[in-house]
Amino acid sequence: MKNKNLYFVLFLILLLITVSLGVFDRDQITDVFTKGENWMYLFIFIMLALTYGAISQASNAIKFYVAKKEGREIAEEEEALDSWFSKVWQKLQDSKPIEEESEIELDHDYDGIKELDNNLPPWWLYGFYLSIVFAVIYLGRYEVFQTAPSQIEEYEIAMAEGEKQRAEYLLTAADLVDENSVELITEESKLQEGAKIYATSCAVCHAADGGGTVGPNLVDEYWIHGGDIKDVFATIKYGVPDKGMIPWQDQLSPAKMQAVASYILSLQGTTPAAPKEPQGDKYVP
């Protein structure tokens, strides 16, 4: 059927809409249609679909012409375009039916192929006009009047929003941290929480000021098992059983181990009352 290409184009458009409705929620769909670049992508998609239809129609016309010249009949190609979609498609193309092409034939003839004086397809012409209007509006909004954020500003806004979401996530998912993802905490309230845990669980072996007693000095630059936040967290989590330090992972949550590890590192540079001699290797961040 001649209108099979039109049906294919309509199928692509409906498929795009269906997928969009299935993948995105209402807020995301609203956000998609409020961004100018997404309208541009949609416009490009529609233009490509129409281009496919136009090329397919031209290909069918050539096959029909060749078949007619060779005396073959193709009933499928001679089927009348009487459906509503087909009429709309014909208007979008603004092309003469094959039976009337003799009215717009030019004198140019090459190897039996004659040139036709068809008008530009309205969909292409209006699409060209719309692209000009879009370019003027885009230039005015983003470059002249600057009423919309630039790409750099959009990036900065997106990064700030991402950091905000990350902070909110960490507040609700603090116990998901481990020795690979733990980060140093500098928030005073969290450090105070770590100080309380240190006083009740760590001070007996490392002294209240971190100078060390049975356990090593935690204030100097020398560390037996590494002085990075990840190293300190892992030492607290798994302990050092052969040296008498128990693993704390069954008694402290990951968030609490992160807090006490950060507090221990905050003691760096302080002066304990009776510091124990350095042990291990000097840690250089």
Question: Any key phrases for this structure?
Answer:
285 residues; mainly alpha; Cytochrome Bc1 Complex, Chain D, domain 2; two-stranded antiparallel ribbon
Q: Going across the major beta sheet, what is the strand order?
A: 1-2
Distance between the termini: 73 Å
Domain module tally: 2
Number of helices: 10
Q: Summarize the main sheet.
A: 2 strands, antiparallel
> Overall pLDDT, averaged?
81
Radius of gyration: 37 Å
Overall morphology:
rod-shaped
Helix content: 55-70%
List unreliable stretches of 5+ residues: 76-82
Task: Give the helix/strand class.
Answer: mainly alpha
Tell me the β content. under 5%
In short:
By secondary structure, this protein is mainly alpha-helical. It has helices spanning 4-23, 26-33, 36-69, 84-93, 122-144, 151-172, 188-201, 203-206, 229-238, 254-266, and strands at residues 105-110, 113-116, 222-223, 281-282.
Would you mind describing this structure in some detail?
By secondary structure, the chain is mainly alpha-helical. The protein folds into two domains: 4-144, no CATH class; 188-282, Cytochrome c-like domain (Cytochrome Bc1 Complex, Chain D, domain 2), CATH 1.10.760. 55% of the residues lie in helices and 5% in strands. The chain contains ten helices and four strands, in the order ααααββααααβααβ. It has helices spanning 4-23, 26-33, 36-69, 84-93, 122-144, 151-172, 188-201, 203-206, 229-238, 254-266, and strands spanning 105-110, 113-116, 222-223, 281-282. The chain has a two-stranded antiparallel ribbon. β1 and β2 form a beta hairpin. α1 runs antiparallel to α3 and α7 packs across α10 (254-266). The longest helix has 34 residues, at 36-69. The radius of gyration is 37 Å and the shape is rod-shaped. The protein starts with a helix and ends with a strand.
